[in-house]
Specification:
With about 190 residues, the chain is mainly beta. The chain contains 3 helices and 13 strands; from the N terminus they run H-E-E-E-E-E-H-E-H-E-E-E-E-E-E-E. The longest helix is centred in the middle third of the chain and has 9 residues. The C terminus is likely disordered.
């Protein structure tokens, strides 16, 4: 192993781990929609249904998340790379030209792969980020968008199921096949 390393090395190395991409949305105290791109979103527990996300502790969206107490996790589909880029740029109207509908947890972005309404339970400070753990209170899936948006080594791509079974002795799922594929370059997606 090579030591020491800097933040660029750390970010580049973590880039080898593919992640899904979400846009986290909520509303500000005046009811206006706010949101941010987030690839540090994952499940924590099945019972109760908990998820976690990491938000930069200097993020303006963090203030609104704390105040609202909840959010909508919009899981992006394979064709939504540009949408992710829009929600990762600071000091712009991130909702400009974006189709969305209201929900109790926060705006649901149209054409996303799936939506989760979440209520924030716990917050932990972790370095230059804050970890939010939230309970999922409602969810739904867009059956018309089968492939997720994936972020890997600085680019967007997608994922197709491989016919190889997950465990020895397991049979492959019907219709499974393909491999990961790359798309276009993308910025960092940290709030």
């Amino acid at each position: 192993m090579v030591a020491p390393f800097d933040t660029t090395d750390f970010r580049r190395t973590l880039g080898y781990l593919p992640t899904g991409v979400t846009v986290i949305t909520t509303t500000d105290p005046f009811g206006r929609p706010v949101g941010m791109a987030c690839n540090s979103f994952m499940s924590v527990s099945l019972n109760p249904p908990l998820v976690m996300l990491c938000v930069g502790n200097a993020s303006a969206t963090l203030v609104d998340l704390r105040q609202s107490g909840g959010f909508c996790a919009n899981i992006l589909g394979s064709g939504q790379g540009q949408l992710c880029r829009q929600f990762s740029v600071k000091d712009i109207d991130r909702f400009a030209g974006v189709r969305w509908t209201e929900s109790a947890a926060g705006p649901e972005l149209c054409d996303a792969l799936a939506w989760m309404s979440c209520s924030i339970d716990v917050e932990h400070v972790a370095g230059d980020h804050v970890i939010l753990i939230a309970e999922v209170t409602a969810l739904r899936v867009n059956q018309d968008e089968p492939e997720p948006l994936v972020f890997h080594r600085g680019v967007f791509g997608s994922f197709r199921e491989n016919a190889e079974p997950l465990a020895a002795g397991a049979s492959p799922r019907p219709g499974a096949g393909g491999a990961a594929r790359a798309a276009s370059a993308a910025p960092s997606t940290a709030g």
